[in-house]
Amino acid sequence: MAGVCKLEIAETVSELKALLNDQKTASGFQKIQALYLFKIGQVTTVKELALTLGVNRITVQRWLKQYRSQGLSGLLQVKQSGGRKPAIPPDVRVGLQKRLNDPHNGFKSYGEIQQWLQEEYNINASYKAVYATVRYQLKGKLSKK
Prior knowledge:
By secondary structure, this protein is mainly α.
């Protein structure tokens, strides 16, 4: 029969049931459920499984490819989103925090901090990024010299 998925699932039905109960995320639950449905023979094709789970056929194929190549641990691995990198990196923030806390060598303005970042670390951060970092993340204040 065309479209029948040939997949060797190493885990037993009882192990898969236990794993279903242990899942913390919806995607993890769906992935284990896919393996479970194949194992018990409720579904035989990828298309059938995709319809049952309410996901795209390509998604199911990607899950199965991941399972074949990396096993259960690879299938359940949660990717961390990259997100935007901060305008002022963590190591530079440490130096900035020290300078902000120094009563004799503080900054008078956020523009001065921008200039210092450019000179010391070659970082061209916007005024808005400098203000947000100093005021809200580092909880720093400008000196009143």
